[in-house]
Design brief:
It is a single chain. This protein is an alpha/beta fold. It has a single domain, classed as Response regulator (Rossmann fold, 3-Layer(aba) Sandwich), CATH 3.40.50. Helix content is about 45%, strand content about 20%. It has a five-stranded parallel β-sheet, with helices on both faces. Strand 1, helix 1 and strand 2 form a beta-alpha-beta unit. The chain is globular, with a radius of gyration of 13 Å. The chain starts with a strand and ends in a 5-residue tail after the last helix.
Length: about 120
């Protein structure tokens, strides 16, 4: 069974790069370009894990995470926050809204794979 990741990322270049790298590692990847899309896809796609950009515009990743975590159907999906800001306050807020972990962009893919391995079965 393939591990499915939902990537919520508004930057097309980041989304493409991360999608390609995750697919090469054997993950199934679906993506949303904004918070509302991510919330909807969490329900329809039932991913094993969500990578959530926090800087998404109208509805940020923290608000989207709170909505996903408030729904009994999607509450148990682990969410890793992704942000270009390495501030302790961003990490604290991510954990406070329900993310299981936090990573900075640009993404260190080796480090991200280690974090993914804590929450889902890695392909291969």
């Amino acid at each position: 069974m393939t591990t499915k990741i939902l990537l919520v990322e508004d930057n097309e270049m980041n989304r493409d790069m991360l999608t390609r790298r995750l697919m090469r590692r054997g993950f199934e990847v679906v993506s949303a370009i904004d918070g509302p899309g991510g919330v909807a896809m969490a329900t329809t796609e039932r991913p094993d894990l969500i990578l959530m950009d926090v800087a998404l515009g109208e509805m940020d990743g923290w608000e989207a995470t709170q909505l996903i975590k408030s729904d009994p159907e999607t509450r148990s999906i682990p969410i890793i926050a992704l942000t270009a800001h390495a501030l302790a306050s961003d990490r604290d807020r991510s954990i406070a809204v329900g993310c299981v972990d936090f990573d900075t962009k640009p993404v260190d893919f080796t480090r991200l794979m280690e974090k993914l391995g804590k929450y889902v079965r890695l392909p291969g």
